[in-house]
Amino acid sequence: MHKLITFADRLDRRFELKAETGEYIHSVLSRNHIPVDAVIVRRDGDVIDDWQERIESDAEYRIEMVRAYHLPDFLSLTRLWDTELSSGDWQTRDDAYYTKRHFMHAGEGDYDSTQVSFNREEYVRYVEQLFVDGVHSKGLIASDEKVLLAVSGGKDSLALGYFLSRTAPRLPAFDLQTVHVTTFSKPPETSFAQSMAEQFGHPLTLVHDEEVQEFYGLAVSPQQALADVKYKYDPSYSIASVHSMMRCAIERTARSMGISKIAFGLMREDICTSIIKSMFVGFPFGGSYSKQQGSIEMVYPLWPIGKKELTLYLEALFPTNNKQGSPVAFERGELARDIHYMIVDTLETILPGAGFQLFEGHQRMVDNFLDLPEQKDCENCQMSFSVGSGAAAPDSTICELCIVFEKLGLLR
């Protein structure tokens, strides 16, 4: 049964919100993008617990703001509410494929809201230029440089391969090699990585299970080592272990080729999530666009592009390649990882363009105020690691994953 409840802001304005009998008040707040700590809720004049209360058909409810900011205006401006509060006309077009929205802080001034719609062809041109501008503006690739591209066989590295190939005339001339670690990858992903390299004309190096096992000096296969980590040590550490083993293989491949720069397919949400996590756990996340890890520089050419934008790009150009398989068992991380991604996705919904501001602010802190941890090369696997990270104490000579492997008796 439908019911209207009153929302009152601190400017003596009243709005009607739709609710359902039996629905939690907290659900009504969430659905209308109202921060629960910004309001109190009254039923028939008395304050109630908005977490436990369900809507009753014969009661009158009133949601009152406790802070004097213009929440309804902001929600209307960002089209989270459908009201007449926001000024200006919204651009519409019949052939729209994607609408880019920004709600950016204009230097010393106030926030400025903009939006522009693209048809399919315009969108492809736009996002490719966005990629090119992102590489140039942050100096991620230099002329005559050797770059190793890590390809997983998934959407992100596929898109990065397309961007690098299709925009090559607009980028500095550089030598590109590719590497794919078959460990923990599904056979179709490996086949796809091979076909990508052949299609783009990029030499490909495959790193197999036996090599990864040798890199770590494991007494068991990499898959068995990861199973022991997941079931005998800590289930939430499995995805971090996968990433460490893959990075170790990629770093060692780069060094064997005399390459000191590796390009990864991290896009906007990946980097934002890493920054958010670093703030929550209190351990710095290098730079927003690139990161020095020992003798290796890691660059993120997809930094200006979000996962949705990347997916739409592939859909516009190569829909048959726009597929992503479900993750394998070791790629499911802890709940915290999902929460961090949800925070970033929600932030971008409420404040379009927030990621760009987060990047710039974080980069300024890294450049001007943060003392990044010392880097060492692990004496066992030779991968670079940050001293003081996780189980790796300041005087540790081996990385966190090797410490875990040692505890589990997995090293020869």
Polypeptide structure, described:
The protein is an alpha/beta fold and 412 residues long. It folds into two domains: 2-76, Ubiquitin-like (UB roll), CATH 3.10.20; 142-407, HUPs (Rossmann fold, 3-Layer(aba) Sandwich), CATH 3.40.50. The protein has 13 helices and 15 strands. It has helices at 25-31, 71-77, 120-137, 155-166, 187-200, 209-216, 222-233, 238-256, 268-281, 307-317, 335-350, 354-368, 400-407, and strands spanning 2-8, 14-20, 39-43, 46-48, 61-65, 98-105, 111-118, 146-150, 175-181, 204-207, 261-263, 290-293, 296-299, 375-377, 384-386. A hairpin with a 2-residue loop joins β3 and β4. α3 (120-137) packs across α10 (307-317). The protein is globular, with a radius of gyration of 25 Å.
Summarize the structure.
39% of the residues lie in helices and 18% in strands. It is of the alpha/beta class.
User: Which structural category fits the helices and strands?
Assistant: alpha/beta
Give the number of domains: 2
What value does the Rg take, in angstroms? Answer: 25 Å
Q: What value does the average pLDDT take?
A: 89
Low-confidence stretches: none
CATH topology assignment of the largest domain: Rossmann fold
Q: If strands are numbered along the chain, what order do they take across the biggest sheet?
A: 10-9-8-11-13-12
Task: Indicate the proportion of strand residues.
Answer: 15-25%
CATH superfamily of the largest domain: HUPs
- Tally of DSSP β-strands: 15
The share of residues in helices is 25-40%
Distance between the termini: 67 Å
Main sheet?
6 strands, mixed
The number of helical elements comes to 13
CATH top level of the largest domain is: Alpha Beta
- SSE sequence, one letter per element: EEHEEEHEEHEHEHEHHHEHEEHHHEEH
